[in-house]
From TrEMBL:
It comes from Amycolatopsis mediterranei (strain U-32). One of its GO terms (molecular function) is nucleic acid binding. Residues 313-365 form the HNH nuclease domain. This is HNH endonuclease. Belongs to the Rv1128c/1148c/1588c/1702c/1945/3466 family. Keywords: Endonuclease, Hydrolase, Nuclease. InterPro entries: DUF222 (IPR003870), HNH (IPR002711), HNH_nuc (IPR003615). CDD domains: HNHc. It comes from the Bacteria. The lineage of its organism: Bacteria, Bacillati, Actinomycetota, Actinomycetes, Pseudonocardiales. Gene3D superfamilies: 1.10.30.50.
Length: 409
C-alpha cells in the first residue's frame, strides 16, 4: 500500500463530508426556490423591473434562462402561491417541499415526485406523495419513477381519455445539409413509432460483420452510419421508389476515362460533390449512380443508364447463384448487395454471369482497395483469393453461409 492510498476510515470521512455538502446545496436550492416564489407573489416587475423570476435569476446568478425557468417551476410545485386576484394556490407537493428544505431530496427526485403528482387525482395526492417519499428514503429517483408508474397504472389502468378520436399527426422532421468539407450532417425528430421502426432496421443492418477478413472493430456509431448508407441503397433498389421527371432517383457522376481506368484522380458527384476516381470505379460496376465518362476535352464519351450494365434478368440469375454476398463469411442477403464486374467494364469486361459476382457494399469496396481477388471457378461459382499477408499460399475461399437452392432429384 502506498503512503497516499486512502484508508477505509478516510473514505468514510470523505463520503460523510460529500453528504454534508450535498445536503447544504440541496437546502440552499430549496430556499432559493421558496424565495423566487415569494418574489413572484410580490411582483417581479414591481420589485426589480424584470418580466419574470427566471429572467431575474438569469442575471443575478448567471444561469441560462431555461435553467431558471425549470427552477421556478419546481419551486411553484413545492410552495403555495397566489392567483392574480389574491386567492391562494395550494402547493402540489408540500411534504416534498419540507423534505427538500431539509436537504433530503435530489433535484431529479423532486422532479419525479412532482411529475407523478401532476397525473394523480387531487383526492389521492397526499397518500401517493407519502408513499413516494417513504420509498425515496432508501431508493434512487429511477426506482421512485418506476413506483410512480405502477401507482398511476393502478389508479388509471385504461390511461387518459384521448382528447379526440382522430389520430394525432406524427411529429417528423429531418434536416440534411452539406458542409463545405463535403461532409453531410443529418439530424431530425420523429414520433415514437417511426423511431422504433428506424431503430429496428438499423439494428438489423448494423450487426457486426462476420467474415474471413478478421474481427469487426467498428464502433456502434460507425456501424449505424454504415447501416444508414446500406438503408439508402435498399431504398434506391426498391421498385416502388417514386420517379423524378420520369426517371428513377439517381445521381450523376462525371469522370475522365483515364481516371476511371487507373482509379487515380477525382470525379464530380452530382452538382457540387466530389469523390475519388477509385470510388467512382466501384460504383460504375452496378449502382444507382449514372457514370458519365468524359474525354480529354470534357466531352461525354459514354453516358451510362441507370443500372447501367446489369439487367433485371441477369440480376435475378446472380441472386439465384450467389444467394447473397459471395465474400467468404459474409451473411448479407441479396437485397443488400451489388453486382461486381470481375474484369471491370472500363477494361472491356463482359456483362454476364462468368464475369459477375454479388457483393455487399462493404466487401465490394474492400475488393477494389485491397489485395483480395475474385474469380469464377470451373464449377461456375465465385471464389476469392486472400492477400498474401493473410495466406501466403492464397488458397481459394468461398462463402458457405448462404443456403443453396434446393434441387429436385
Amino acid at each position: 500500500m502506498t503512503d497516499n492510498a486512502a484508508l477505509p476510515s478516510d473514505a468514510v470521512v470523505l463520503a460523510d463530508r460529500i453528504g454534508e455538502l450535498v445536503a447544504c446545496m440541496r437546502t440552499a436550492e430549496a430556499e432559493l426556490g421558496a424565495l423566487l416564489v415569494e418574489i413572484e407573489q410580490r411582483g417581479v416587475m414591481e420589485l426589480f423591473g424584470y418580466r419574470s423570476a427566471a429572467r431575474l435569476l438569469e442575471h443575478l446568478a448567471d444561469v441560462p434562462k431555461q435553467a431558471g425557468e425549470r427552477m421556478v417551476k419546481r419551486a411553484r410545485a413545492l410552495h403555495p402561491g397566489r392567483n392574480l386576484d389574491g386567492s391562494p394556490i395550494p402547493a402540489l407537493a408540500p411534504a416534498t417541499g419540507v423534505a427538500a428544505r431539509a436537504g433530503e431530496l435530489s433535484t431529479p427526485m423532486i422532479d419525479v415526485i412532482t411529475g407523478v403528482l401532476t397525473q394523480v387525482p387531487p383526492e389521492h395526492h397526499a397518500g401517493v406523495e407519502q408513499n413516494l417519499l417513504s420509498f425515496a428514503a432508501d431508493a434512487g429517483h429511477k426506482q421512485v419513477a418506476a413506483l410512480g408508474a405502477r401507482i398511476l397504472a393502478h389508479l388509471n389502468p385504461d390511461g387518459a381519455e384521448p382528447a379526440t378520436t382522430e389520430p394525432a399527426t406524427p411529429t417528423r422532421e429531418l434536416f440534411l445539409r452539406r458542409k463545405r468539407t463535403g461532409i453531410w450532417e443529418l439530424n431530425g425528430t420523429f414520433d415514437d413509432e417511426t423511431g422504433t421502426r428506424a431503430s429496428a432496421v438499423l439494428d438489423a443492418i448494423a450487426e457486426r460483420r462476420t467474415s474471413d477478413e478478421g474481427p469487426d472493430h467498428r464502433t456502434l456509431p460507425q456501424r449505424y452510419g454504415d447501416a444508414f448508407s446500406d438503408t439508402i441503397d435498399l431504398a434506391l433498389n426498391s421498385p416502388d421508389l417514386p420517379t423524378q421527371a420520369g426517371e428513377r432517383a439517381h445521381v450523376m457522376v462525371a469522370v475522365s476515362l483515364a481516371d476511371l481506368k487507373t482509379g487515380v484522380g477525382t470525379a464530380t458527384l452530382g452538382d457540387t460533390g466530389e469523390m475519388s476516381a477509385a470510388e467512382a470505379r466501384v460504383h460504375a460496376c452496378d449502382s444507382m449512380l449514372i457514370p458519365a465518362v468524359m474525354g480529354e476535352k470534357s466531352e461525354p464519351l459514354n453516358l451510362g443508364r441507370l443500372r447501367r450494365l446489369i439487367s433485371a434478368g441477369l440480376r435475378r440469375a446472380l441472386y439465384l447463384r450467389d444467394r447473397g454476398c459471395a465474400f467468404p463469411g459474409c451473411h448479407r442477403p441479396p437485397r443488400h448487395c451489388q453486382g461486381h464486374h470481375i474484369r471491370h467494364w472500363a477494361d472491356g469486361g463482359p456483362t454476364d454471369l462468368t464475369n459477375l459476382v454479388l457483393m455487399c457494399a462493404h466487401h465490394h469496396r474492400l475488393l477494389h482497395r485491397s489485395g483480395w481477388q475474385v474469380r469464377i471457378a470451373a464449377d461456375g461459382l465465385p471464389e476469392f483469393l486472400p492477400p498474401v499477408f493473410l495466406d501466403k499460399r492464397r488458397k481459394p475461399r468461398r462463402n458457405n453461409l448462404h443456403q443453396p437452392l434446393p434441387f429436385a432429384a
